[in-house]
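Order emerges. One example.
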Amino acid sequence: MGLEFEIIPAIDLKGGRCVQLQQGKRDAVLFSAENPVKIALHWLSLGVSRLHIIDLDAALQVGYDNFGIITEIVRQVKGRAKIQVGGGIRSYKAALRLLNLGVERIIFGTAMLRSPQLVRRIADEFSPRRVMIALDVRQGKVAIDGWREVTGIELRAAVKMASDIGAGSLLFTNIDVEGMMAGINIAIIKEILSYTTLPVVVSGGITTLEDIAQIEEAGASGVVIGSALYTGKLRLEEALRLRRRQDSNL
């Protein structure tokens, strides 16, 4: 695909804290810490090229406003790493606010199905490169609304929809293994990669260096890692060293 494979740490925001939830369940908290800005700067200091920020409160529409934290992370990281932000972006105003802030790309999930014209408008006005579509899948079907509603839409159809409305990249999350730290399902990852030529970033279940290597070998453009980093099952430094060794062997 001509893109450097990226190791991307996740920063999920809930109630002003950095958290990790198991399979997106609000009461299944695996990790919680104050000062998400400090955490972002820690990941940056280790040499990442991109950060992945999800506003869980916005995704679940529970009312807590994390925009101030996102603003501060962007302010301190801008020019040193790229930032992608998702979670509850369901209006032009919300998308514009993030893009004007300096977020490199925004992630639409629910909006792809409920407001496709919004996604198409952002892609047309700001370029497809600024638009990532999240395909969150549970048992082969796309889930929306903070993963609370599982639609009847299968993966192949969802990939086509995302491409048709102007997505520049896809974020694929296998909810079945998300937060379980028990490894990936490489078969479904290969399945989505077979449906598209768009860059695909993979999330969900990534726990070992072998998981990362398998995903890269399958043809993905990057991985988002959350729970395994925050619980110490996987060290970001080791993942980045693996990436650099592979680059040097090319």
Remarks:
- The radius of gyration is 16 Å.
- The longest strand covers residues 6-14.
